[in-house]
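STRUCTURE:
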């Protein structure tokens, strides 16, 4: 799916600001086929210069690229201090390159809170490569490995004992090691220090473009998902279902809190009118009975308005259902399509501790 630079910039701003309308649009976009590359390493390793050189190499091959550069936040404005990375400005006039700087806004882990959604957006936009550059890492700042299909750890000569100090952190997430500024004294020592990690090692001098094609070859040779890419995620709350007698009145209340209806439909199989209101990374689902024999009608008669169910998103619904059946859990239906077209299964409250549980197949992105 091709999205113009202007529209992509608008959507990126909405994603970073956690705008409910934009997040709803994002959920409706199809996934792309981008190769997602994480570039991380200690401050001063030349990551931005390396990303710029890698982008130039990809463009010579006709590949389109999105760069997400996570920067420190300005204490005054809250925005990214380094802005759009002046060291990448050679690519600004190229329609095949989209560069977005994101402020960490105080979030640790080397990545901004909305980075995962930004990666999804760039992937959906039809880019061939999405490169995520972290702000600069320490022992705990390894979260890029959860987003990237290939994680590149950039080191430089002169680190000395620092290589040993960071081994418990970023060293173990690397799929590829890059020794940048390899023309400087100490490159041999760094390579000796990391050779025992048994990962590909590439030497580069990014300012001169040396070794960049070797790095690109190593990235393309790395199997997608072989390292830390797109791991099976843990179940997470997708939405809270709330039964209401009158949908419009309920919507009016939540709108006073600043929430916006992103999706409405009638689910014939459940005989229910549905309104979805995004709340950050999850949603509130308002449920109004569409007929007297609707399960929501029966719920309202018995318990009155209130929490009807909790919905969890799972990476593999079929596997989850198989495990639940093996454990003796009571399932209320076979997997079927619900609001928004997602596959779902309900688990009876007797098996969950008293709350109706909905399991939803996580969309593949």
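SEQUENCE:
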């Amino acid at each position: 799916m091709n999205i113009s630079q202007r529209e992509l910039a608008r959507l990126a701003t909405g994603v970073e600001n956690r705008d409910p309308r934009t997040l709803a649009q994002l959920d409706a976009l199809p996934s792309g086929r981008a190769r997602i590359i994480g570039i991380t390493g200690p401050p001063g390793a030349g990551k931005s210069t390396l990303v710029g050189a890698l982008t130039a190499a990809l463009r010579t091959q006709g590949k389109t690229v999105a760069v997400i550069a996570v920067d420190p936040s300005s204490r005054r404005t809250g925005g990214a201090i380094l802005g759009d990375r002046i060291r990448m400005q050679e690519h600004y006039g190229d329609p095949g390159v989209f560069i977005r700087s994101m402020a960490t806004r105080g979030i640790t882990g080397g990545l901004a809170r909305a980075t995962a959604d930004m990666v999804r957006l760039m992937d959906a936009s039809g880019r061939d490569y999405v490169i995520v550059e972290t702000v600069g890492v320490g022992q705990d700042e390894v979260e890029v490995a959860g987003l990237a299909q290939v994680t590149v750890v950039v080191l430089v000569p002169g680190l000395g004992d620092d290589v040993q100090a960071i081994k418990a952190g970023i060293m173990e997430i690397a799929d590829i090691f890059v020794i940048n500024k390899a023309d400087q004294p100490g490159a041999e020592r760094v390579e000796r220090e990391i050779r025992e990690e048994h990962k590909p090692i590439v030497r580069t001098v990014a300012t001169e473009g040396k070794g960049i094609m070797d790095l690109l070859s190593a990235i393309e040779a790395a199997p997608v998902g072989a390292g830390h890419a797109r791991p099976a995620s843990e179940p997470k709350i997708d939405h809270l279902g709330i039964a209401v007698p009158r949908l419009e009145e309920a919507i009016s209340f939540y709108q006073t809190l600043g929430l916006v209806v992103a999706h409405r439909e009638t689910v014939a199989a459940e005989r229910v009118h549905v309104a979805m209101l995004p709340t950050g990374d999850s949603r509130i689902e308002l449920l109004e009975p569409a007929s007297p024999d609707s399960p929501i009608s029966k719920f309202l008669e018995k318990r009155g308005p209130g929490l009807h169910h909790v919905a969890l998103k799972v990476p593999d619904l079929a596997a989850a259902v198989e495990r639940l059946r093996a454990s003796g859990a009571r399932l209320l239906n076979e997997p079927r399509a619900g609001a928004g077209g997602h596959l779902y299964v309900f688990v009876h409250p007797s098996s969950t501790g008293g709350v109706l549980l909905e399991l939803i197949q996580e969309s593949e992105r």
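REMARK: The first helix runs from residue 5 to 16.
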